[in-house]
Amino acid sequence: MTAHTIETASRNLHVLNKYEKGNNSIPVFVRLIFLRIGQIDTRAEKFQAHVAIEARWFLNSDNDENKILSTLSMDDQFRLNNGEIIKLSKDFPENNWYPQLFLLNIGQDCKEEIKYTIKKSNSQIQIREFHDVNASFYSKFDLHHFPTDIQELSISIGSALFDSEVTLDTDSNRPSGFLFQNDEDYSLDKPGHRRKRSILTIACHAARRADYFFWNGYFLVFLITTVCFSSFAIPPNGVQFRIAIACTLLLTSIAFRLTISNALPNISYLTLIDLYAIVSIFVLVILCIWHSIIGTLVFIYDEYVNLKSDSYWARIDRRIFYVLVSLYIIVHVAMGIWYYYVPISRKRQMKELDKHYRRIINESVDKNRLSIGSSSNGATKRELIV
């Protein structure tokens, strides 16, 4: 028995003991399994998902137990006493207590199926409520590092009952997770945030696969900006051609920037690809300004017609070219280093957390049951189902 398994089972037992010591709130242990993640709509800040939700609670009242047992046939009662799981009828919620769970951030296109089962172990009756939900869910996205962002796809589970009647908690012995491998645009990490409050939120992390945006976003903007430096091949006295090239590429870059913005929701901050596009636009503007300045100086000093390659203004123009290209390269090197140590580093951290989570699951996969003894006063043992 691993230390982690003992710790998580003790946590659930603590919640149950808290109820028995006078707290009328019934503890309900909840876990959520992501069966499938569909389309993740960045602009609408929602995602499609097929999830399975399991809630379980113990019956601590003889009246409740007798009421439920009276609805079972003799054969079902015999199987129940032998530890088998019995499926309850659909009218169970009409005649018995249940936590009245609902999903807070669910969309309108919802397909949900609910069923109930009963299981008996060590003279304790446990009720399980299963929700099979296929719907869209709304989730606030953080796009600061777009397109190398990691999104928290969260599902919030609440109860229509007051806190004094029910306490929702994560099922530490039966961890949440997902049962699929890959998605088209994202790679997924195991659920990481579990916040205990009156509303239970379970989330997984989706790391965007940024290849598409690197080639169709960053790379195209990089090419557009880099091509503008070719205008220095035209002598300074051909300023009209230089400015024509720079302005054409500037308008192209602005139009491309608007195309990228249409793929994102209306947010009050700039994403990484926004910042890169804006910096590239500023580079093009600086080139336009310099071409105007050098053309004006050549015209003022009467070298517009007889400009030679070794003239003063031609040498100044070449030096400005070297300076601008050097700064352009330095900015990209600095940006590459920052990418490696911030957004990409965060992805590496999420992968390490995912490996740690998998190790925990592998340690407890062969543990079907966990028995915890009560205090030394001879009290009966309580068995928690893993």
Please report the total strand number as a whole number.
Answer: 14
CATH architecture of the largest domain: Distorted Sandwich
Radius of gyration: 32 Å
- H and E order: HEEHHEHEEEEEEEEEHHHHHEE
- CATH topology-level name of the largest domain: Acetylcholine Binding Protein, Chain: A
Structural classification: alpha+beta
Number of alpha- plus pi-helical segments: 9
**Count of the separate structural domains:** 2
Largest sheet: 7 strands, mixed
- Tell me the span between the first and last alpha carbons: 12 Å
Name of the CATH homologous superfamily of the largest domain: Neurotransmitter-gated ion-channel ligand-binding domain
User: What fraction strand?
Assistant: 25-35%
Subcellular location: Membrane
Keywords: Membrane, Transmembrane, Transmembrane helix
Main location: membrane
GO molecular function: extracellular ligand-gated monoatomic ion channel activity; transmembrane signaling receptor activity
